[in-house]
Amino acid sequence: MTTAGTYAAFATREARGVSPVYERLSLAVSRDDGLLALVDGLSPAKRQPNLLFGVVRLLGGPVEDPAAFHDFVVANWPAVEAEMRVRATQTNEAGRCAVLLPVLAALPQPLALLEVGASAGLCLYPDRYTYRYGDRLLGAGVPVLDCAITGAAPPARRPEVVWRAGLDLNPLDVTDPADVAWLDALIWPEHAHRRARLRAAAAVAAADPPLLVRGDLADDLPALAALAPPDATLVVFHTSVLYQVPAPRRDAFAEVVRGLPGHWIANEDPEVLPYAALPEPPPGAFHNVLALDGAPLAWTRGHGQAVTWFG
Questions:
Q1: Does residue 285 have a pLDDT over 90?
Q2: Fewer Cβ close by (within 10 Å): the C or N end of the chain?
């Protein structure tokens, strides 16, 4: 797909109905030959809308007005380009724990959690967060993760987690203000509730930091998995990560994770991690597929705001 096509698709598939600012901005970039020429000077993995928009926000630039955005990027391209070359989209959305929770709670307890593409590790604390599924509240304290659930009953308990670790090419530190600022910049402009949730989840993680290891999702996964306590159920999981990984490496990762003991939970774009004979997704928004050990179970919204069960 061309860069213009990537930005147009982002607007219609992901931002529409979720972020009017990013829908408008991404469509504008898809038609802006000057900006597209600049972005095309980067490697394909670095041309993502979320990365460009997050870097501009991190540098204090405007995203609400496409014309002002254009002027800022053109005037500050050396700084924008430098940041885009060294950064990656590491949206660490704790809200995704709400769609993982029903699967995690149903597995043999206790659990040893290993997240691939962990960023700062905020999704490694499903046992510490509070959940609201409709009128059902599970847990106490903050953050409270709201999730609409369809096709199944809400989980009755939170999992018992005795070990948690993450693998990432560039792990982030929730105790480092610069790393938290990058996570904040990746949150879409209108989403004040997600910004508050980030701060609350970061406080949970900072109070009991996870083991985060710098490494490759396939090459370094077995060694980290081997550190998990043998009397716990190993769960390797990832959410909205594999779209950043070239297809051959995705295949290598899938082969490795299938060979590990325990379970594999994937929550990914079905175009990136395909399954046969999926039902039609719910209308009106982009959905990922939640799967356990290669078997698809549910459609999920990208930030954990809804889950629709079919498996």
A1: no
A2: N
